[in-house]
Amino acid sequence: MAVPSRFNRRSLLVAVMAATASGHALASMGNIGNTYGLLPTDVASAQSLSMFNNQVSATYYNPAYLATDSRGELSTGILHAEHELRAEGSDRTGKVLSDSPSQHVLIGMKTNLGSLTKANHPIYLGFMAGVEKFGKELLAFESETSQSGQFFQYGRQPLFLNIGGASTLWRGIDAGYSARVTLHSEASLATTTDLAGNTQYEQLSVDAKPSIRSIFSTNVDLGETLCGDNSCWASGLEIALSYRTDSNTKTTVDAKTVIPGLIPASDPLVFSVATYDSYQPSAYAVGLHYSARNWRVAVSLEQQNWSDLEEEFDKDTIKDQAMAEFDDILIPRIGGEYRLNRYFFVTGGLAYQESPLKEGTTRDVNYFDNDKYIVGIGLAAQYDNPPILAYPVRFDFGYQRQMLQERDFTLDSTRPGNSSDGVVVKTDGDVDVISGSITLKF
How sure is the predictor about 11, in pLDDT bands with cuts at 50, 70 and 90? Predict the structure, then answer.
């Protein structure tokens, strides 16, 4: 006998809300680090300088670079990303599909643990954390099918947490390791209900387990390695390599109910959902950096292995029917920084990112994703001897614009009576990101 839809909705809603411990949120395949950039230098350079940023955000992009600055650091900042994601088709009256902002408060710290030992060999430890909605929302989560379509890589971002360390191996050669921490939640609900949806004898348990994924990197200062204390052709030239394993945010919900007289306790009605909200692909990156007295420039190439997500979606009970296919992509970036005077620096960068989502439909889920150009600009002010503080202080501001290129999608829905099935939708959009931070060096 069919169970009333009222009970279905109530039971699953209670379980999912308990598992995620958050309110309604937009899904996002990505994180703040690879979608926008962590600190303003990362945002303003379109992440082209991220592998060569001696601030604490290096724990995510290139942890080995923590060793290039012997000073400790305390950084705090905010990031606001404003979306206007558009989808135009015959099944809708307006163009804007999503305009919910992503807003973060960020904090990072770096210190030298080598001072705790007698070895006199520096070992640098750093961590970086970001919390959505300016610190009010730790675990934004939503996974759903959609008749009207949904964008693949945007929305509010879950908790960002990264911790890592670095040390010098030999002259000019540094190595680093960091761990990216996400949460896997499991919820279990058992209840007895009547046909009106009134429950009793409830049992609810929720577990949230950390999932730790690795980031490895090495950085080589060719000038220091090849030339030592002397100047040569390689002076000012650096190369960096990094590898990030994939990571995700996952929720599993198991709910079962008994309806006296209809569904016995010996054979309860069972609902099981296992789904991913946030996914970050494994990535290889190589960067080349050249610095002179008043300026520096960097280029990088990053490969993101999105094809691995196909296997994960096969285990996702909400998205498995989508049969989504993904390509591995290469992201080129170029950017630089120029020192205007004793105090001020200006930063700029450019990147191009292809969509990993292959051509075709994603049944019932109806994902949209677009190729995009990313451009950024920023300004920094550094005071080595501020009037009140005992240590140098740095102020950073970064702006980034992401321009999503037009792409057509055909909606595909198996839901009975859905008038959007087969409709061709033209998608594009713009994302504006602003970021500011204060950094103390000690």
Answer: very low
Number of H helices, E strands in the chain: 7, 19
Tell me the HSE value of 412 on the side-chain side, using a 13 A CA sphere: 14
Return the amino acid letter for 230.
N
Residue 246 has pLDDT above 90, yes or no: yes
Q: C-alpha 289: how far from its chain's center?
A: 24
| Cα separation, 95 vs 85, whole angstroms | 8
Q: What is the C-alpha to C-alpha distance for residues 437 and 42, in angstroms, rounded to an integer?
A: 12
The Cα 369–Cα 356 span in angstroms is 8
Per-domain residue ranges of the chain: 5-441
Distance, in Å, from the CA atom of 242 to the CA atom of 283, rounded to the nearest integer, reads: 8
For 311, the enclosing helix (H) or strand (E) is helix 309-314
**Other CB atoms within 10 Å distance of the CB of residue 326:** 22
Number of CB atoms found within 10 A of residue 29's CB? 24
- Give the span between the Cα atoms of 143 and 146, in whole angstroms: 10
Give percent helix, percent strand, percent coil of the chain, each to the nearest 5.
15, 50, 35
State the alpha helices, DSSP H only, in 120-162: 132-135
Burial (Cβ within 10 Å: 0-12, 13-18, ≥19) of residue 153: buried
Cα distances (angstroms) measured from residue 67 to each of 75, 173, 245, 290, 393: 17, 9, 22, 18, 19
Q: Contact, 60 vs 32, CB < 8 A?
A: no
> How far apart, in whole angstroms, are the C-alpha atoms of residue 405 and residue 430?
9
**Phi then psi for 323, rounded to 5 degrees?**
50, 40
Pairing of strands 367-368, 150-151: parallel
Say which CATH topology domain 5-441 has. Porin (2.40.160)
CA distance 383 to 77: 18
- The DSSP symbol for 259 reads B
Q: How far is CA 341 from CA 130, 219, 399, in A?
A: 32, 28, 21
**Within 136-241, where are the H helices?**
222-227
Instruction: Give ∠ CA 43-46-47 in degrees, rounded to 5.
Output: 85
Q: Say which residues have a Cβ less than 8 Å from residue 442's Cβ, sequence separation at least 6.
A: 71, 72, 73, 74, 390, 391
- Shortest CA distance to 285 belongs to which of 239, 254, 325? 239
CA–CA gap between residue 370 and residue 43 (Å, rounded): 20
Checking if the pLDDT of 113 tops 70, the result is yes
pLDDT single digits (tens) 276-286: 888 999 999 99
